[in-house]
Amino acid sequence: MKLRYERFGAWVKLDEPPAVVALDRDGVRALGKDGGDHWRDDAPPTPPIEVHLAVTQRCGAGCEGCYLDARPDGLEPPLEVLLARMDALAEAGVMTVAFGGGEPVTRDDLGVLADAARARGLTPVLTTSGLGLSAARVARLGLQGFAQVNVSYDGGAEAYAQVRGFDGAHAAEAAITLLSQSGVRVGVNVVLTSATLAALPETLRRARAIGASEAQLLRYKPAGRAASLDYLARRLTPEQVLAFPAMLRALSVEHAPAGFSIRIDCSMVPFLAGDPALYASPELLVRAGIFGCEGGQALASVKVDGHVAPCSFVPTTALLAEGLVRDHQHDPDLTRWRAYPSTAPEPCASCAIASVCKGGCKAVSTFVDGVHGPDPECPRVRAHRADGARGAPS
Amino acid sequence: MPEDRHPVPAASIRALRLGHGANCSSIGSVVDTLFVTALLGGALFAAVVGALGKEPILVVGPGSKGDDAKAPAESDGAEAAKEPSDEGA
């Protein structure tokens, strides 16, 4: 297992069961380790533990809502450049590297990259549309080298087309089946829009039936080609957001006993504030390892040009991956992101789950409100603003 | 278990994030631990505590060489003061 010291103790990455554990200092000492100066109150902020590494900008799918605006003629870094970036990630103590694009499986050296990640102590995972994936290509690419492969699957034909502008459901389902039968642990990425949320229960049942073992639910975000007025029509409605935790609870109860896990992405954590029981249990959210906006902290993204971004949906910083260890703590943009949770305005300032949520999705707040501020689609933020509009005391 | 290594108290596990996660755009959190109470209780924590007690340890991160802690390369007290010591966990 890998252990990285943090001010609170250490992050520990376990292989079996696959998990990341935050241990306090007593727990670290029980392992016979001591954080030394890493445990000083003025120790510098640590680099991310999970990095999303774009290995290509090329993709021919042409999804309407592509957050990267990936295109068939996009940039593709040479192998040696990506290896150097992974050297930097390993030096920083990153634990998981998620390969994305563009469409990563357009690269013939994907298996080499997975092996290189493991050789550096990084756990490699992968996201793909699954389009064009055949048994021969799965074998040739060495996709078995990945700890997990997630296939973009927004539901059956209608739901898939609602999100991406074309019906790729059949290809995605074929890829899920193929990967599962090839011995690869498969998850699905399900992008949720106002038009597709109702189909989610059926989408998850179908994904599980054809071999997926996990679903990651993703909020539709206004980035790349999705940064348009169309976003306002596609995003979940306030009513859907309020009903979402109950839906999540029902889906989890249905699927977890069968070993099918459900994840939500960081941008959906503010939606949990609408659930009275969860809102009253911030300690449960912490213990369950729920991550809200971790941009500049546990999460970073490295784009195809090598620049680091707080996450995949926002502009890059001036920092290059190769400078992650030396300059992570000094980069002004990352510093601003890290500082936000402790300086957030109301209603985040008084929110019981603010330490987990960290203000919600900044890609959304920046697009909708024009500021790096509270997530405008959070139920508490909506209520706060409605109270303000009515002149009620806050 | 080496002489200086002892069982990790379950109470020392501040946060448990299950799975690998494989999304390339945003960080994900398993929510089953919120809704299926058995998952955050006994068996799972016992498995984690067990794994913590027996897997070989590789220390990673800035200043480490796979084993003992090293001092952080550089301190930034001003920024550090903004963050609670348990930030992120």
What structural keywords apply?
heterodimer, A: 394 residues, alpha/beta, TIM Barrel, 9-stranded mixed sheet, 3-stranded antiparallel sheet, B: 89 residues, alpha+beta, 4 helices, 28% helix, disordered C terminus
Explain this structure to me?
The complex is a heterodimer of chains A (394) and B (89). Chain A has 394 residues and is α/β, with parallel strands linked by helices. Helices cover 36% and strands 16% of the residues of chain A. Chain A folds into two domains: 1-43, no CATH class; 44-342, Aldolase class I (TIM Barrel). Chain A contains 16 helices and twelve strands. Chain A has a nine-stranded mixed beta sheet with strand order 10-9-8-7-6-5-4-11-12. Chain A has a three-stranded antiparallel beta sheet with strand order 1-2-3. Chain A is globular, with a radius of gyration of 20 Å. Chain B has 89 residues and is of the alpha+beta class. Helices cover 28% and strands 12% of the residues of chain B. Chain B contains four helices and three strands. Chain B has helices at residues 32-35, 37-40, 42-54, 77-80, and strands spanning 13-18, 28-30, 58-59. The radius of gyration of chain B is 17 Å and the shape is flat. Mean pLDDT of chain B is 72; it is low at 73-89. Chains A and B meet through strand 1, strand 2, strand 3, helix 1 and strand 4 of A and strand 1, strand 2, helix 1, helix 3 and strand 3 of B.
